[in-house]
Specification:
Helix content: over 70%
Number of domains: 1
Largest sheet: none
CATH class: Mainly Alpha
Shape: elongated
Order of helices and strands: HHHH
Amino acid sequence: MEFTQIVGIFAAILTTSAFVPQALKIIKTKSTKDISLGMYIILTTGILFWLIYGILLGEPPIIFANSIGFTLTFIILLLKIRYRNING
């Protein structure tokens, strides 16, 4: 494995795992009032396009990070929509 791939994988793990605490907190508290719906729509769409880009390039670190990142941000987005009438 090349050094650049190792760096890419490490970056992917760090940036992708950043969404885990937010997703777990929302699942636990059922509160999404302090996150922006617009921001998560834009972020989720952007990550989807990064995933498509990674697939087109055939780059595993980009595909890995954005597959997981898209899943996590999409879950957060769905929970934001689901809980918005409950708590803002």
